[in-house]
Structure formats: structure tokens, C-alpha cells
Amino acid sequence: MIRLMEVLLHGGATVGGWRARALHRALLTARRCPPPKSKLETAFQKADDSLAHIIQLLEAA
């Protein structure tokens, strides 16, 4: 566990020849995690949530 933390906290662009992005993808794949959402997807999701909330407030008034 300590070695894993050293790898994750390493400040360089590569660890043992692995680029940070490739290492991140490998960890996500190994843990069967879905890929992270893009910033644009997140922004659209927040806008949809806000719009839904506003509609609820208007309907309740």
C-alpha cells in the first residue's frame, strides 16, 4: 500500500516508464471503473439539474 501511495503521489510525468495518463487508465481498467466524464459532459449535467430544479420551483409556485 505504501508503494502504491508513493506511485500515486509521485510528482513526475512518468513512473517506471508509464505516463501518468496510461497509469490512470490502467488503474481504472483494473478496478473496472467507468471512464471519468469530460468537463463538457459535467457542465451539461449540471445545467440539466439546474433547469429541472427551476422547473420544480415554478410548478410549486
Polypeptide structure, described:
- There is one protein chain.
- The chain has 61 residues and is mostly helical.
- It has one domain.
- The chain contains 3 helices and 2 strands; from the N terminus they run H-E-E-H-H.
- It has a two-stranded antiparallel ribbon.
- The mean pLDDT is 79.
Strand order of the largest sheet: 1-2
The best one-word shape is: elongated
What's the tally of helices?
Answer: 3
Overall number of strands: 2
Largest sheet: 2 strands, antiparallel
Helix-strand blueprint:
Layout lengths: L1 H8 L4 E2 L2 E2 H11 L8 H22 L1
Antiparallel strand pairs: 1-2
Tag the structure with descriptive keywords:
61 residues, mainly alpha, 67% helix
Short description:
The chain has helices spanning about 1-10, 20-30, 40-60, and strands at about 15, 20. By secondary structure, it is mainly alpha-helical. It has one domain (about 1-60).
